[in-house]
Amino acid sequence: MDAAVTQLARSGAIPFLCGSAAGCFALYSAKVAAAAGQWRAVSVKAATDMDSALCTSHSVALDQHAASCCALTVTSVASTAEAIVDYRNYRHCSQEKLATYFATRRPFFARRSVLGTAVVSLALSASLVGSFRLIAPQQPLLRHTLRSSHAGASPHWEKLWGQDGGLPKGSRFDVAGESLPLTAELKRRNHAPSDGMTALVPGCGRAYDALALARHGFDKVVAVDLSPAACEAAREEISGSSGSDCVQVRRGDFFALDPARDGTYDLIWDNTFLCALEPEVRERWAAQMKALLAPGGEIITCVFPIGEREGGPPFAMSVPLVRALLEPIGFEATLVQDQLPLEEQHRRPGDKLESVLTRGTALVTWRLKSQD
C-alpha cells in the first residue's frame, strides 16, 4: 500500500469522516423535517384549496426526503461502526500486514451489516412516509401569496374586516344588504331562465348579493372573498336565510380560481370589485373574467365610483375604462345603463340620496361576441 494511504488509515481519519457524515445527515434530516412542519402550517393558512394542496404536497415530499436522510444517517452509523472495528484491528499493523488485511476483507461500506442496514432503513422510511426521496424537492411556485400581497390580493381588506372586533354593517364599503343596482336589475330582467344555472360573486363581503342571486333562481352561487373575516361574516349573514342552501362561501383569491377545477359560471356579478383592485391588475381581472365565464354567459359590472377621485381603493371608474379592458379580449356591451335613477345607484343606507351625484353608478352587461 502507498505510504500516504497507510498513514491515513492509521490516523483514524476514516472512522472520523464516517462519523462526521452520520452527524451531517442527522442534522440535515432534522432541518428538513422542521421545514416539512412549516409547510404543513402554511397549508392550513393557504388562501385557496389549490395552494393548500401544493403546500401539503410539498410537505409530504419533504417528509420523504427527511426520512430518506434518516436512513442515510443510520447507514452512515453502521459504516462508522465497521470502520472503527477495522481501525482497532489494523492501527498497529505493519504496512505489509495492513495491505493483506484490506486485501482479504470487503471495504467497510460494502459489508453485509452496512448494506443490510441501508435496505432495512430505506424500506422502513418508505413504509412510514409512502416513498423515499434522496433528492430534495424543489419549492412549489404558489400562484399568489401566502406570498400573498399581489395587487389583487391586498391584506388591506382583511385589516378592515378585522378591526375593532369586526366591520359593522353599513360602515365603510358594507351596504348592509343587497345592493340597490342589483335589486333593480333582478326586477327588470330574468337572469336565471333555466334550471342548473350558476353565478359567481367575487369580493362577496357579507354575501348579500350572492343570496339575492340564489333567491332569483340560480341553483348555485359561489361567493368568494380573500378575507377570512369576511367569509365568516358572510356565513353568519346567510345562515338560515331563504336560498342559503344554494350559496357556497369560499375563502380564496379570485385570480387563483381555476376553470378546470372550480368550473365556469353563467353569470358573474362584479359589484364594485374592480374598483377595489390596484390598476396594475385590471387586465388580469378581464382575462380571469373571460376564463371563468361559461359559454353563453354574461358579466354584469356595477361601475362605481364614477367621478373625479384621487387614488384608492376604491379607484375611480368609468364605462369607457371598463370597455377598454373587456372589448379588446372579445366582449361587447349588450346593455349599458349609465343613467340609473338616484334611488338605484350604489350607496350605503345612511348615505344621503344626493351623495350619488358626486360618485355615480353605471350598470353594464357584457357577453362574448363569438357566443351570441
UniProtKB/TrEMBL annotation:
Annotated transmembrane regions: 114-136
CDD domains documented for this protein: AdoMet_MTases
InterPro entries: SAM-dependent_MTases_sf (IPR029063), TPMT (IPR008854)
Database matches in PROSITE patterns: SAM_MT_TPMT
Listed GO biological process terms: methylation
Species in which this protein is naturally found: Triparma verrucosa
UniProt keyword terms in alphabetical order: Membrane, Methyltransferase, Phosphoprotein, S-adenosyl-L-methionine, Transferase, Transmembrane, Transmembrane helix
UniProt keyword annotation of Transferase present: yes
Protein name as catalogued: S-adenosyl-L-methionine-dependent methyltransferase
Keyword Transmembrane assigned: yes
Domain of life: Eukaryota
GO molecular function: S-adenosylmethionine-dependent methyltransferase activity
